[in-house]
Amino acid sequence: MYDFRTHRHSPLGRPGGRPSGNPARPLPRAAALATTLCLVLAALAFPAFAAEPRSGGTLVVAGGAGLRHLNPAVQSGAHAGLGVQLFAGLVRVDDGFRPRPYLAERWEISGDGLSYAFHLVPNARFHDGTPITSEDVAFSLAVVKRNHPFGMAMFDAVDRVDTPDPLTAVIRLARPHPALMQSLVPLLMPVIPRHVFGDGRDPKTHPMNAAPVGSGPFRFKEWVRGQHVILERNDDFFIEGRPLLDRIVVKFFNLPSVRMLALEKGEVDYYPFAGVRFRDVPRIADNPDLRVSTRGYEALGPLNYVEFNLREPPFDDLRVRRAVAYAIDQDFLVNTLHGGLPRPGYGPLHRSSPFHSDGLNRYPVDLDRARKLLDDAGYAPDAEGLRLRVVLDYPPFHVDSLATGANYIRAQLKKVGIAVDLRPAADFPSWAQRIGSWDYQFTMNSHWTYPDPVIGVHRIYLCGNIRKTVWSNTQGYCNERVDALLREAESTIDVPTRKALYAEFQRIVNRELPLYFINEEPYVTVSRRYVMDLPETVWGPMQPMDRVWLDR
Amino acid sequence: MTAPGNTHGAAPARSPAREKWAAFVRNRSAIAGLALIALVLAMTLIAPSFYAVDPFDIVWRPLAPPGEAPAVPLGSDFLGRDVLAGIIHGGRASLAVGASAAAICLIFGIAVGAAAGFYGGLVDEGLMRIAEFFQVLPALIFAMALVSLFGATLAIIAFAIGVVSWPPVARLTRAEFLRIKELDYVRASRAIGASDRRLIWRIILPGALPPLIVAATLTVGGAILFEAGLAFLGLGDPNAMSWGLMIGANRDFVLEAWWTVTLPGIAIFLTVLGVSLIGDGLTDALDPRRYGSHLRHRTRWRGQGR
């Protein structure tokens, strides 16, 4: 976790960009901040022991605009998270991605890894009182497989779901599928009522998506578009004594700054995916009423990177891509520019993944080497030292990492003779359209790696997934060895074997640089101090909030 | 400054232009404006060759205050770029956008206004409805839409500002044309067979120019502000350093690094102030009523009263 106390600026100290003099002066604020934080932490230690969870109260959550509907079975992204409060899943996962019982109280996996038998809790009912049966589980899986953006990645291996009795669902696989358990969490496979959504209408546009009959800890009460969503306690929840909150209100604000103000004023209690600038985080942490955390987003695993269009010059040439990598100083980006809040990333897997490899080439900044690589690639400097001119796109999200990063990369590439014109996008769709139609030279980009590489990572590298849609293999990367490794990894259960497969995959991607990774995007949660037991396991705000309570 | 008594004493024969210049330089604030603009022009046109730091280069740690290091005399911005370099080099883009937006606005406005005022009737009706269409659109939002649609380059930004600000110029031109075309000398020219083109360009337009020159100067100032506004909203050309872009890029850091936003803000303020002062001076100097014989007395009286 990010240590807020070490936040201070370090000077430029790199060959090629070294100024004279010594500007290394820790800000006095940093020291003051450290002291305050220690005091606050000490003060908090005691009430934390004293207080017993109690029920009641309303939690007000700050949300952004753009909610389309409340059914996570047919959508992905941050807005799907709200549906997790409405729908239960077969399992949930703990801090270490280990599956824990939820709607399924236990399960058995056959020796060949092709059959998973889930036993549902006997007293579970949908919000309209209808019992939840294995038929609903089979139906939900079919809907997700057909309609969710990752449906095929998650459930392509599923041959069928048998329902020997109402409380037993047996998922039968055509081949071993290591990501199956991770795909059964409420966000990715919510159990939805067949008697509501099974009426033959298209689940993507089903009218009940806006007012669903759910199976989770909270039931739908009201949605005023653009204003708020109200969820009420499900008194009939299958876990005794849960949830603790009476009500969750999600208030929508267009501007991140307004969301933050609402939180500071106490109008809002909880702000996940907080839209704050990295530099503001220590200032917010200074506020004794607020709690700041970067935990609880590991299952999303957001990675930021530079994506090269490999179809055309100059980035079809590995030497040019490597020159870019050697010209960029990750330490400056991560530490000097952003105070150490983001962590550097070097390869295609997020640090929290069990398959993450250390020891990849970090391409330490080396401007002479970058120039030499460009020479070798045939891009000799002209009289003004200019070798080539390229256009860099960047999307309007992850502003600190991507927009600021693009500005930094322009300054840095100029030093090795590459003139960069920035092309910002007016909005997300116009950027996504441009990248999705392969109409770019190189772009800043970011994707979620999700808890298993099969779900979130393979899509970016498989030759068969070179498609005209953003967050597929838009860069046009195709390596037969990588394909073979990923194909094998997606049907291997044994973790050490998979780890070896992914280690080689990471080495190849790190060497061939279809993408050059910059950092792991830190998502920030800000909440009022009295909100207790906020979900901070790997799914963070996208897991059920049945244990959350208010200490006031 | 020349004392009023000297200029108006023996009344030697003088050309109108010299007389106007004299009126202009008598106006202290106009001279101050002129001096400001001369300063800004010198800074943006000449200084870059003396201070060759690329405003996009990262030369120091981010957000260093002014005076921390000789490398960044006026401090550094959120990326570690030199604020002084930005102010010196950024003026070029700001002034270029301001001037070309004003030019586009004037060409458009004068063409439409002249046609509407001269021909009247259906042409007038049609053109004025078009002008109204542009006037009822919120200027900033319309310009933002144009820039988002066609891309944030300096040319597009200048074009967008020009397109949203021509209707007032058109209305002004039209009003002048309506007034002047009924004057005797115009009727006389028409009677001796002057073509429409000659009437518009050679006979009427010169008479309509004084208020248009004033409008043009004020439009330059407005366009510079407009460009800063667009850049503040994130719609500046990211590949051309301008004062507006500096403010827009650093606005989130204004609380901890005032110099990143305040200094380019002062540059914009002084430039727009200079342009406006010149505009005011021109308004007074070009006012034809000051040179009619029956009004000369009043002018002298005003001059002495100061």
Describe the structure.
The complex is a heterodimer of chains A (552) and B (306). Chain A is of the alpha+beta class and 552 residues long. Chain A has four domains: 2-44, no CATH class; 58-64 and 208-298 and 526-550, 3-Layer(aba) Sandwich (D-Maltodextrin-Binding Protein, domain 2); 87-204, Dipeptide-binding Protein, Domain 1 (Dipeptide-binding Protein, domain 1, Alpha-Beta Complex); 302-520, Dipeptide-binding Protein, Domain 3 (Dipeptide-binding Protein, domain 3, Roll). Helices cover 28% and strands 19% of the residues of chain A. Chain A is built from 16 helices and 21 strands. Chain A has helices spanning 28-50, 83-86, 134-147, 151-155, 194-197, 256-265, 281-285, 318-327, 330-337, 367-376, 399-414, 428-436, 453-456, 458-461, 480-489, 495-512, and strands at residues 58-63, 91-93, 99-101, 104-109, 115-120, 158-165, 168-173, 218-224, 228-233, 247-252, 270-271, 290-293, 302-308, 343-344, 388-394, 418-424, 442-448, 515-520, 525-528, 531-532, 549-550. In chain A, the strands form six sheets. Chain A has a six-stranded mixed sheet. In chain A, helix 8 packs antiparallel against helix 10 and helix 15 runs antiparallel to helix 16 (495-512). The longest helix of chain A is centred in the N-terminal third of the chain and has 23 residues, at 28-50. Chain A is globular, with a radius of gyration of 25 Å. Chain B is mostly helical. Chain B has a single domain (19-278), classed as MetI-like fold, CATH 1.10.3720.10. Chain B has 13 helices and no strands. Chain B has helices at 4-8, 16-26, 28-45, 47-50, 83-119, 121-136, 139-150, 154-180, 184-191, 196-232, 243-250, 259-286, 293-305. The model of chain B is unreliable at 1-11 and 292-306 (pLDDT under 50). At the A-B interface, helix 11 and strand 16 of A face helix 7 of B.
